[in-house]
Amino acid sequence: MPNKDMETFQDRMEKTIQNLEEEFNTIRVGRANPHILDKITVDYYGTPTPLQQVGNISVPEARMLLIQPWDSSLIKEIEKAIQASDVGINPSNDGKDIRLVFPELTEEKRKEEVKKKGEQAKVAIRNIRRDAMDFFKKERKENAITEDDQKDLEEKLQKMTDEYIKKVDKRIDAKIKEVMSV
Fold first, then answer.
1. Using one digit for the tens of pLDDT, what is the confidence trace for 107-143?
2. Residues near 88 by Cβ (< 8 Å), separated by ≥ 6?
3. pLDDT by residue (tens digit) across 57-69?
């Protein structure tokens, strides 16, 4: 039984790593990356719809994204959605297309962004550890596990947490190298 619980917490930590990778894809590195728009939804006739499903997104220049809505009546909605997001870029339109021009980000800003997202992932992993510890204490209180089992599980959990924190650190280092080579 306790191994099944450990797997649950390990799965949650693994999902945190996957989420970190997705977050890293949204970091602006000076060149336009369509993934920065992945989390933006547009009100499409009353239904929140991912931006990719209402138009074509292309990269005509290194620091520009071009959004060509399939329905030109959506231009105002798309602009509104982009402005409400945390992309930090003001869209401009010519009546049928929307352009997003990315300013050059300083090295320091890019590093800061990577570290911030990495730190959020570490906090999430530590929160999972805390949840697991609380769960094991509750199990002990209810006599579902012995005191020795609890100690063993907590030690395994700490080792697992340390491993995942190291994974996050490795990904942070790799991403910093990537954003510095732009």
1. 777 788 889 999 999 999 999 999 999 999 999 899 8
2. 28
3. 888 887 788 888 8
16 contacts 125 by C-beta, under 8 angstroms: yes
Angle at 88 between CA 83 and CA 90, to 5 degrees: 55
> CA dist 127 to 59, 133, 134, Å?
38, 10, 11
Written as one letter, the residue type at 43 is D
Task: For residue 159, give both structure tokens.
Answer: 């080792």
Question: Nearest-5° angle of CA 14, CA 16, CA 17?
Answer: 65
- The three-state secondary structure class of 142 is coil
Mean pLDDT (the chain) is: 85
Cβ contact 165:125 at 8 Å = yes
Residues of the chain below pLDDT 50: 1
Give me the numbers of helices (H) and strands (E) for the chain, helices first please.
Answer: 4, 6
Scan for tokens 């395994």, then name that residue: 156
Maximum alpha-carbon separation in the chain: 69
Interior/surface letters 41-51, b for 16+ CB within 10 angstroms, e for the rest: ebebeeeebeb
* Cα gap 153→166, rounded to integer Å: 20
Copy the structure tokens of residue 12: 């949650």
